[in-house]
Amino acid sequence: MLIVTQVDSVSTASLADVWIQGVIALVTTVGIIASIWIARSGQKHDLQLAKDEGDRAERADAASQAASERAEAASRLSIDTMTRIADALEKLVTNGISIGDLHVLSSGPAPGKVSWALKHFQGDMYLLENTGDATAYDVTLGADETLMRFGSPWELTPELKPGEVVQFGAVRTMGTRDSTITVQWSSAPESEKQSWRYPLPPRPPRR
Q1: Are strands 193-199 and 180-186 parallel, antiparallel or unpaired?
Q2: 206: burial class by Cβ within 10 Å (0-12, 13-18, 19+)?
Q3: How many angstroms separate the CA atoms of 185 and 182, rounded?
Q4: In this structure, are residues 45 and 53 in contact, taking their beta carbons and an 8 Å threshold?
Q5: Nearest residue to 207 (alpha-carbon basis) of 119, 121, 123
Q6: Using CA atoms, how far apart are residues 131 and 161, in angstroms rounded to an integer?
Q7: pLDDT per position in the chain (207 positions), as tens?
Q8: How far apart (Å, rounded) are the C-alpha atoms in residues 154 and 169?
Q9: Within its chain, how far is the Cα of 150 from the centroid?
């Protein structure tokens, strides 16, 4: 009887050890599983944070680009607007409207302007015409010294009214370096000179 009791005691102790080891193994396994789950959850959280940060950066970049495009568009609009305003003011001045009071028309006519046209007439003769709507005073012609010249306009034409012409002669030679004609005139007698330059028009071949 004593021997049997000792065997039963040993079996009971061994069984308890097995249960304890089993519990320890289970707890360890659960801990490992929990650690893996926590680690994976942390990784997913980090990935989500990184994705959210990337999305925010992308939205910020898109917003910055849109703001830049709006600024460029506003700049272009401002330049176009200023150009239209300048053109409108120039037209107002040309049409005789006072800038100081845009609602009041000028009582006087718009100031006239001298303009020129140069064309071939016949042979070595050319015509200079005042195509503007104002009289040109003290009109003289000039050219490079290598261009042969003749006629009174090279000296002085006291005045040339709108639509009037003067006739002058000029000849290109092999030694002519520059055939540009320079017209000088004044908008009023004895006032400051203005100038206009234009190449001598071609003439038909000599027969």
Answers
A1: antiparallel
A2: exposed
A3: 10
A4: no
A5: 123
A6: 9
A7: 444 455 455 566 677 777 777 778 777 887 788 778 787 777 778 778 878 887 887 776 556 545 434 533 343 344 345 545 744 554 454 555 544 444 444 445 567 899 999 999 999 999 999 999 999 999 999 999 999 998 877 888 899 999 999 999 999 999 999 999 999 999 998 889 999 999 999 988 877
A8: 9
A9: 50
Handedness of CA 98, 103, 104, 108 (dihedral sign): positive
Residue 35: φ, ψ to 5°: -60, -45
User: Looking at the DSSP assignment, which residues form a beta bridge with residue 160?
Assistant: 136
Cα gap 85→79, rounded to integer Å: 10
Q: How big is the CA angle at 109 (ends 105 and 113), to the nearest 5 degrees?
A: 130
Locus of tokens 């071949």: 205
CA distance 198 to 152: 19
Among all chains, which residue has been given the structure tokens 């006519």? Answer: 109
Residue type, 138: D
In whole angstroms, what is the distance from residue 140 CA to residue 92 CA? 33
The encoded tokens of residue 59 equal 């939205």
- Strands, E, within 36-135: which ranges? 116-122, 125-130
Contact 185, 137 (CB under 8 A): yes
Report d(CA 134, CA 194) in Å as an integer: 14
- Residue 79 phi/psi, 5-degree rounding, is -65, -45
Structure tokens at 180: 């540009």
